[in-house]
């Protein structure tokens, strides 16, 4: 799936209704890089998603969330909000007064359509939040995250989304644990979650056992997010302090490289996507001629081959060497029809087409 | 002597006589077998300036030192003569059981001259040569001829190489065929036909000895293992037809007579689709572990072997997009014994002339790009030399000369031989390789395209290193074609000259170093050139068709890429320099003595 296609077919859901008891104040509203954390997250996700659904809690912060988010919506007047407390998750489109339609700093094309829904049965664990988020989202798939994880990595997220075509759930497995609150779900699993809720099965893993679940390995994650910052969440004031410092450091590093301040981008700016076109034996084995892959930052041929190995394990051995970074001796690679490359360190740019072909052109 | 018999069989069809002669060891060591030995014999046996269809033009079949050693892919023989298409050397290879039997007759080469007064076939058995009447075989396909002869001679061990109707009718690009394989390019079948020779049947039991049988077997064993690795997977899994899809994507698939290098309607013709939709079975030459031949089923359910060159030439080159037509056209070419590349190339030329209103007879049969019916009609007409087929049977160069005007600009040949399926404008090293190849536009006697596909150079641009790279590829091929080893095994060697030198030493008992082998490659190639010079080669024969130098590619990743005359000239100069030839492309005397060639 190409970026533009994903943007139309995928929604993002941010769970902002969790308990903030140890933090002492609502996490979604914590200042982060000069703005409330929830805004920071929406802005970060905006380049990837045409729609962002925020699942808020039942508490007083819901109203505050709503006014905060209004300026981020592409249709501020139509920011969805619940009308009656006893009708959770039934958003309506109120005629908002015009003063809410303020210009804001985000570029129009990246302004997502925002929906705010209330998780009425709050604090019952992640399954409820996931369920309400999925029910509300319009996209065919949903990337779901929680509002206390500030270090979103668009490259990793793109990669997770790119994996969904043959699965119902794509979930990272980091440090021996599933990361259900940083995962991609096919919207069609929502009814199953509803049933789970009714049965009181509050662990997402019950779902993973029932549907086609792609477990994304640590090695695979590290290609995009070497330290797993994506899974770092803040539960205590100390966590928060540490995260702020870390953010500062990233910003400085970024400036050192001449790059933009990270607040303008994700902490790990995305490498974008490339298309791999398969020919000859590779095409026969893969039973497909084309595949889109998310690229990490400053990607190389080795990254492409590693990502390709994840997607099409059948190629490892006959086409891709078992190191998953290089091609076997009978195969060659051409970028954009222009350059033949063999060196795994050869750079690959977003938008590149990578042809995997036979090394022998004899006929 | 090991590896060779040290004997030559000369046959005079006019007098119906034959003679066994000694072959000097020095000649065998200098030229090995196959193409090298054939070239050396051609130089000596062809009278200077001989007409290709004259009885005096020798038709030479050679065996090679590796034939019968059990080394994978080596059951091959060469056919060398003066080409009726180019007027220069024609050196073609074919393979399989006929090659094994040819070696067992006890000669390293057979030189056939003269002309029978009536259709004849030769039966070579146990040192005897019989001249037999072939009236009953005349008009038969090579395949029918093979089976007729094997039953007629009452010996299923007999192997046969034969011509079809195209050879009988001296179609200038007729092949010699055995077991469904062809000595395909340059019109060797037409020369055979001009001698009224329908077929050669061989049966023998004279095995050549090997100096170090264990050493040879050890190498053969290792090569068998290597031949089954990922390096040859393309050939095993799909066959050469795998080239089509990727060539199309790389903008190097000649389409509609080289007007384009991409074909929009290629999907059905890709090797990947053919394997998925039409695959019937895999087959291979005798003694081969790779077994690259793929037989495909047409809609009619008939099995047909298909190679990339046939596929490109009868498909995109003629604007044909359906596999049924291509398979059927390939079947017809096999039936009549026609070189599919020159057949497709000449038909495509006819189609372009017709499209531009310059070939009125063509409109009668609707010879337009993409018209499958017309292709089906014109192939038999070419083989019979009937109607428009009479003109096209001459090949694109002569046909264009007859029609005149700008039609010569669209005759896509070098020295008279039609171009293979590698677009020169987007494969610049190949462009040079095609221009200088002694047998005309050829993808086999050098593999210059390998350089373009390697990333060693920018395939879309020219530079001063191409001469050296083309020369190296030619010398390498000359050795491969003289040992003979199939080119699809070439990448399975890690250090080719050292390994092949070791192998030839173990087979022959000579101590043959890598350097000596390299020099042999250069010597063989140089002698081809010397033959051509003797037969009238001029500097402007090393050149490409005008279209390639005038028109940029209009589509695909190589859109806008062309090749200018000055770029080609510079590459030619770099080639002549790399070869140590003079700047007009002639071989100086000093080079001859350096290579030990005495004229
Ligand atoms: S690789 Fe193919 S062409 Fe070569 S010897 Fe084997 S079957 Fe024949």
Task: Kindly list the characteristics that best describe this protein.
heterodimer, A: 363 residues, alpha/beta, Spore Coat Polysaccharide Biosynthesis Protein SpsA, Chain A, Ubiquitin-like (UB roll), 11 helices, 29% helix, B: 599 residues, alpha+beta, Aldehyde Ferredoxin Oxidoreductase,  A, domain 1, Aldehyde Ferredoxin Oxidoreductase Protein, subunit A, domain 2, 2 domains, six-stranded mixed beta sheet, four-stranded mixed beta sheet, 25 helices, 41% helix, globular, binds iron/sulfur cluster
List the helices and strands and how they pair.
The complex is a heterodimer of chains A (363) and B (599).
Chain A: H1 3-9, E1 10-16, E2 31-32, E3 35-36, H2 37-45, E4 51-56, H3 61-70, E5 81-82, E6 91-92, E7 113-118, H4 126-136, E8 141-146, H5 154-162, E9 169-174, E10 177-178, E11 182-186, H6 190-199, H7 205-210, E12 213-216, H8 218-222, H9 237-256, E13 273-278, H10 280-286, E14 290-294, H11 301-311, E15 331-335, E16 339-341, E17 353-358
Parallel strand pairs in A: 1-4, 1-8, 4-7, 9-12, 13-17
Antiparallel strand pairs in A: 2-3, 5-6, 8-11, 9-10, 9-11, 13-14, 15-16, 15-17
Chain B: E1 7-12, E2 17-22, H1 25-31, H2 34-45, E3 59-62, E4 76-82, E5 89-95, H3 97-104, E6 109-113, E7 120-125, E8 128-133, H4 142-152, E9 159-162, H5 165-168, E10 176-178, E11 181-183, H6 188-194, E12 197-203, H7 213-226, H8 233-237, H9 243-249, H10 271-278, E13 279-283, E14 293-297, E15 303-305, H11 308-314, H12 323-336, H13 340-355, H14 360-364, H15 372-384, H16 388-392, H17 395-403, E16 413-414, E17 417-418, H18 428-436, H19 449-452, H20 466-483, H21 496-508, H22 514-534, H23 546-550, H24 565-579, H25 589-595
Bound molecules: iron/sulfur cluster.
Iron/sulfur cluster is lined by residues 73, 95, 235, 284-285, 288, 290-293, 486, 488 of chain B.
